[in-house]
Amino acid sequence: MTLPRVRLFLLGGTITMTAASNSTSGVVPSVDADALCRAVPGLDQVAEIDARTEQMTASGSLTFQHGFDLAAEIIKADNSGDADGFVIVQGTDTLEEMAFMLDCLLDIKKPVVVTGAMRNPTQISADGPANILAAVTCAATNSVGLAGVVVVLNDDIHSARFVTKTHSGNVDTFQSPETGPVGRVVEGSVRIFSIPVTGPKLTIPRGRDMPKIALITASLGDDGYLLGLLENSDCQGLVIEAFGAGHLPEKYLDVLDGMTKKIPVILSSRVAAGHIFRETYGFQGSEIDLINRGLIPSGILKGPKARILLTILVMSGASREQIKNTFEVWDL
Length: 332
Ligand code: ASP
Prior knowledge:
Elements: E1 5-12, E2 17-19, E3 27-29, H1 33-38, E4 48-57, H2 64-80, E5 85-89, H3 95-105, E6 112-115, H4 128-139, E7 150-153, E8 156-159, E9 164-165, E10 174-175, E11 183-186, E12 189-192, E13 213-217, H5 225-231, E14 237-242, H6 253-262, E15 265-269, H7 287-292, E16 296-297, H8 303-315, H9 320-328
Parallel strand pairs: 1-4, 1-5, 5-6, 6-7, 13-14, 14-15, 15-16
Antiparallel strand pairs: 2-3, 7-8, 8-11, 9-10, 11-12
Bound molecules: aspartic acid (ASP).
């Protein structure tokens, strides 16, 4: 029997981390892609794996360029027919952002699955091997491709469009507060419950400098100090995680009036789920006021994903109108 061919890209993360030989404190990336796969009993019966160690880093040090390179490699392998599915293994800290970036940049029918682990290989009940087995099982199952890029941990299959990390240490950390998972791996096989709506598809921006896109979060008593620093900086775009449905302190308003004339300013929310409103509140700093002042509502996208989208758009040379229209798609 020929097995599906799955290409696995390792970027690092807890799943690879063991104690450093020259140190007594803390675990660091050390297990490469081949060793990671060898540690998973039965993996060779699910797929023929082409395992590649691309990076060995904590995911907080991954960059947009890593995502662009990965997307380009996946597109190339998809076009040449060299693989039937793809798995990306990385740290969980930025996993939802990388998965979302790939979902924006990839328009392919084959499964693309992102996974990682919450417990490192030296811990009792390390979740890495089970997550790799489930991720490869999904990548080897054609129908998973219909769901776009998915995140698979703890046997749950989440859409990259809705998933977020909700807990700093729990193995059940990845959740989709708006929708729940799109499927699950049950007794070694894939069950898909629903196919998520598709977001805008963008091309990989090439040959342009990385724009400076800031992300700030509003909080009680904020006098706009940080926003004021950004006003006079060279930042080319700003995402603000506002209160609730899209509200900001009045003290932000003068500075925002200046900034929205110069750069795109995205209005997102600091709460875990829900839309940015458009037509409910009318006070100074409300969503109606902010949208009238030129802020662009992010729909359901929270700050980190909104920043991924804005960065790709600015880097691609999108106009203000194009940016607004693209975010509108996320006002599902
Ligand atoms: N805690 C992280 C992880 O789950 C570290 C990282 O993101 O690289 O892998």
